[in-house]
Amino acid sequence: MVVEQDSSPPAVDGEGQQQEQQPQQRRHKIPVPTNYRSASKILRLVVEERRNVKSLVLEDKHLRKGKGLAMMDLILVNLTQIKDLVRRTELLEKEPRLNPWLATVLVAELIFGRKELTGDSLPVQCVRRYREALQEALTTSEVAPAKQLDFKEPRYVRINVNMLAPPGAIRLLQEEGWVLVDEEFASYAEYLERVRNLGDSEFLVDFHFREMLVFPNSAKNYWGRATEHKQKFVLQNKACLLPTYLLNPAK
User: Which pLDDT score, from 0 to 100, does residue 249 have?
Assistant: First the structure.
C-alpha cells in the first residue's frame, strides 16, 4: 500500500525562514455553571431515590447553601409545570444530547426564576434558544400553576451583643441546622423579595442592622422552644430597634 506524503512546502516567515508547523489549538469547552450541575444531580436523587433535598444541599461541597435551597425549592414547587413545558416544546426530543435533569433546572431558572441563565455552555445556549417557545407554552398551559402561599411576616431576632458577637451567633445557628443566606443585595427592594422567599431553614442578616437576624414566620416554633438561647438572642420587632439607634447617634 502506498501512503501519499504531504508535498506542501513548509510555511515561511517574512524573512524566508521556515516556520515550525503548530498544531491547531483545541477550542476549550465552556463548563456548565456549578450551581446548575449540582442542582441537576440533587434533583435526580430527590425524584428517583426519594432523598431528602435539604440534606443533599447541605452535603454538597460546591453549592452555596442558601442559594441551593432556594433553587431546589423553585424547581420542586414548579416541577409539574416544567415537565409540561418540556413535553409540549419537545425540548428533549429535539435536543437528545441534553441531559433531562439539567434541562429541568435550566427551564426552572429561565421561566420561573431569574428569567435568565448564567454562562454560555452548550446546554445553556440550547435552552436559551427555546425561551420564546417555552413562554408561549406557559401561556397556553392547562397545568395549574403552583399555589402561592400568602406571605406571613418574618420573625426578627436580635443578637445580644453583650453575650455573643454576631459571627459567633451565626455559627451557633448554623450548627443547629440553620442556613445563612449569604448574598449581596443591590437594593432594599431586592432584599425584601428574598425575605419573602426564605425557606423554612434559612435566615438573613438584616439589611440595616447587622445584629438583627431575619427568619421565616415558621421559625416561631423553633424560638418558642429554644429556651437555652434566651440570654443570647432577643425576639424583637425591627421597629422596636429604631429608637435605640435614633437616641444613640454616631459620635
Answer: 53
**Residue 221 has what pLDDT?**
77
Q: HSE of 34 in the Cβ direction (CA atoms, 13 Å)?
A: 9
**Positive/negative CA dihedral, 167, 173, 174, 180:** negative
- Residue 33 is predicted with a pLDDT of 94
**Contact criterion met (CB below 8 Å) for 42 and 101:** no
Residue 208: CB atoms within 10 Å: 12
Q: What is the spatial order of strands in the sheet that 233-235 belongs to?
A: 179-180, 202-205, 212-215, 155-159, 233-235
**Burial letters 164-179, b for 16+ CB under 10 A, else e:** beeeebbeebeeeebb
- Give the N- to C-terminal CA distance of the chain in Å, as an integer: 93
Distance CA 36, CA 68 (A): 10
In whole angstroms, what is the distance from residue 175 CA to residue 101 CA?
31
What confidence category does residue 74 fall into, taking pLDDT thresholds of 50, 70 and 90?
A: confident
pLDDT of residue 151: 57
**Calpha distance 25→73 (Å, rounded):** 42
Give the pLDDT band of residue 228 (cuts 50, 70, 90).
confident
3-state SS assignment for residue 38: helix
Q: Residue 241 belongs to what H/E stretch?
A: helix 238-246
* Cβ burial 124-151 (10 Å sphere, 16+ → b, else e): bebbeebeeebeebbeeeeeeeeeeeee
